[in-house]
Design a protein that fits this description.
Helix content: 40-55%
Structural class: alpha/beta
CATH class of the largest domain: Alpha Beta
Radius of gyration: 23 Å
Oligomer: single chain
CATH architecture of the largest domain: 3-Layer(aba) Sandwich
Shape: elongated
Order of helices and strands: HEHEHEHEEHEHEHEHHEHEHEEHHE
Largest sheet: 7 strands, mixed
Number of domains: 2
Number of strands: 13
């Protein structure tokens, strides 16, 4: 009799215990929209430092666009259909696609140029809605990069500006560059690249324009294919200023901007807070506070250039 009662009790509570175990064992799923290793790996490192281990207590849904921004809306919709707990993006196009796809799932944006002017948040201090993250402060630093370029290469007068017209933050950076040129006695030539198959036409335009130097934005598509840009600059003996240190490590001449790996790692802090119950609307957008000037003297030597000591003494890293 007692055995029969025990069996009935177990049968009655078994579904409840199973459901509870499943709930307790459910790990959060994070969607990585427009995934690329240059930002995804530092983010995963940051999450590991906070105790999130893939396959144990967290999983990821990777959705790379491979530089095709027209794919972003559908990739964002896929993540929404998967019901991920958080969507993480790098760059303005991916963040805008995610915001258009959902107003419910929290979105953590990384490396945004200007999230307010891009319509992603109401303000940096009070984002509102379901979007927060950090900003690379791209547009505001464009003039500084032009000044450093002029100081490093005093004879530069014609500058090509390589940017993605489909990136709202790049558009703002281009306008900033136009303003910054006014006091530097330089002319700016717009070179647009909106997809990977447009690089050859962009390179052809630069060979025709014959600029003295090149400025490259931190657009996700350009970063994904930056090797092509670095190779073109080397073959055409064209000194280039970049926004991201990794581009100089890959052979570019100079870069000035915040650390992208650091911004990506710090994105993990937002994810952790959101998974613990914080609302994106209440998490202020973080602004970069430290900026790195990196100079590649190996590239300078290959180009036959001598970088002034006034620039080198301010460099945070010199590659020799």
């Amino acid at each position: 009799m007692h055995l029969r009662v025990a069996v009935l009790v177990l049968l009655f509570f078994a579904p409840l215990l199973t459901a509870e175990a499943e709930q307790a064992g459910k790990s959060p799923r994070i969607g990585l929209l427009d995934y690329a290793p240059f930002w995804g790996e530092p983010l995963r490192e940051g999450l590991r430092d906070l105790g999130y281990v893939e396959g144990q207590n967290v999983s990821f849904a990777y959705r790379p666009s491979e530089g095709r921004s027209e794919r972003l809306p559908e990739l964002a919709s896929e993540l929404v259909r998967l019901k991920v707990d958080v969507i993480v993006t790098y760059g303005t196009p991916a963040a805008q696609a995610a915001k258009q796809a959902t107003a419910a799932i929290p979105i953590v944006m990384l490396g945004i140029g200007d999230p307010v002017r891009a319509g992603l948040v109401s303000s940096l201090g009070r984002p509102g809605g379901n979007v927060t993250g950090n900003t690379i402060q791209g547009p505001e630093l464009t003039s500084k990069r032009l000044q450093l370029l002029r100081e490093a290469l005093p004879r530069v007068s014609r500058v090509a500006f390589l940017w993605n017209p489909l990136n709202a933050s790049n558009a703002v950076a281009f306008q900033e560059a136009m303003v910054g040129m006014r006091g530097l006695a330089m002319t700016l030539h717009s070179i647009e690249v909106s997809s990977p198959d447009r690089f050859e036409s962009a390179f052809a335009a630069m060979r025709k324009e014959r600029p003295d130097a090149l400025v490259v934005t931190a657009d996700p598509m350009l970063l994904l294919h930056v090797g092509r840009v670095v190779d073109f600059a080397a073959k055409n003996r064209l000194p280039a200023m970049y926004q991201v240190k990794g581009n100089v490590m890959a052979g570019g001449l100079m870069s000035y901007g915040p650390s992208l790996p650091d911004l990506s790692r710090r994105g993990a802090l937002y994810i952790d807070k959101i998974l613990k119950g914080a609302k994106p609307a209440a998490l202020p957008v973080e602004q970069a506070t430290t900026f790195e000037l990196v100079v590649n003297l190996k590239t300078a030597k290959a180009l036959g250039l001598t970088i002034p000591q006034s620039v080198l003494v301010r460099a945070d890293q010199i590659i020799e």
